[in-house]
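Translate sequence into structure tokens.
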Amino acid sequence: MDKYIWLIPVLPLAGFIINGLGRNTLPKALIGFLGSFLVLVSFGLSVGVFLQIKSTGTPINVTLFDWFSVSYLKVSMAFLLDQLSAIMLLIITGVGFLIHLYSVGYMKGDAGYGKFFSYLNLFVFFMLLLVMGSNYLVMFIGWEGVGLCSYLLIGFWYTNPDYADAAKKAFIMNRIGDLGFIIAIFILILLFGSPAFSDIFPKAATKEYANINFTLITLLLFVGAVGKSAQIPLFTWLPDAMAGPTPVSALIHAATMVTAGVYMVARSSVLFSLAPITQHVIAIIGLATAVLGALIALSQTDIKKVLAYSTVSQLGYMFLGLGVGAYTGAFFHVLTHAFFKALLFLGAGSVIHAMSGEQDMRKMGGLKGKLKITFITMLIGTLAISGIPPFAGFFSKDEILAHTFAYSPVMWVIGVITAMLTSFYMFRLLYLTFYGKFRGTHEQEHHLHESPPSMTIPLIVLAILSVVGGFIGVPESLGGHHWLSEFLAPVFKASAALTSTASLSQQVEKTLMIVSVIGALIALIYAYVKYNKNADVPVSDEAERPALVGLSYHKFYIDELYDTLIRKPLDGLSVFFYKVVDRMGIDGSVNGLGKGTIESSKGLRLLQTGNVGFYIFMMVVGIISILMYLVIKA
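Result follows.
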């Protein structure tokens, strides 16, 4: 199996090259088949890797070639496939294939069909490179690559200026985080003489490096994760990224790219376990992001915006888990979130497809009779993200909350309240979209129809995974043995030895689960009464909107705050540098030198009169001047 591992990322890259070059000549059917099939083959190879690691328990190291060598620093283009990366491969290629298949139907009428599939394939290539890299530099190539693909896919419909702006916003905000990441890599190379995980992690916990304070390094790594995984304060790009086609939202902003930061922190768990201050910072920022994302999602009326802020909130949960030392729980939530959030985004795309592009939930309603498959699958996704047992989200979210309770009961309370908000805004979305009377136009109602099989089959598969996915992590308190925890134990063995966490009794764990589920059910019932039984539809008039609701609807004016405090001062500074420093200073000195040369030349050229007598006179003057100089000097 080892000799075929290089094909896992190369096959999607081949799809990018073929579909990219043939985007205007190849038939759409062939483009869709190639783009999807090559990712499917990568998935098959990933399954083989997973089964090999599961049976042997031994990581696979593959060195493709020596990349560069400078003095003591030698870096290889090498892959590390262990339990953590093996599961990430399954998520990226498995969910990625389903989204490619969905795109065949969703993007069928788009003029940029070939270009779209080439971008999707390129994204999968870079994401695979990110998780397969055996050192931070290879990881960083994939890290930057998915940032590039995010820019290309968010701004895919670039003729719309707002969409182009959203792409630029995502690209720039990610660069801020990436700066912290690359500085951390430089420091690690300086300290350990190598960016390879095998050189850094075993040494980090030894006596030789006991005097090193890893707080700065891990904070810089976390800055990179904050940008990529949309945490406070670099989270505002993610909701705007909904400008891209719906499959982009599902692939990049639900299942893969935004979880890259979680993967990077989990991969570097040894370093973070040596920096308790950083872990506390991560827990606080993760919890604050979870709360803020949920509060904003409560009042949004765009179906994709609700899911976007939900993603921000769920990513906050993952970082809360990382911060309290629940590395397995956080990664478990990455896995289940990939299932139900990809399902919800693709379900929203199916609704938008049926509604002829309409995304405002106030103009929907009563769709469950027309879109039966979409409704049932989205109901499953909603139950999963709300933490209702036995759906996938229940197990992963409650594992994070249990570790949070052991870390800080106050944080646990806030986490449970956030879980209640999640249940409320998701069932609000469900009731506004599928229940009640249809509120759209007559023409929209006339054209309502279920999506084609290429779109509904991925929904069904993801719905099944959202039902059964949580059973790989059933805790002992519920009679399980948590297979995922056992499988990932070798990866987190070193960090577990460095982290001391209080253990909870099984009775306490059960009590916490019951409280969490009751909270989710209360929120569900309240949403049912408000939006289904009472048929309450959010108002469009700003004047009729309550103050707190308006604050949430306008996203707490955070974008406007950033605009006032950061963008406008920077714009003003740019204008100053342009007008004063650049034009008057730099250009003025350069142009002044040129003008001075020209003007002095104009004066000097007057000496060239063409009069021979004048030239003889000047020569005599020169000779006399030289003689006088020699006499005076003597």
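Note: The radius of gyration is 30 Å.
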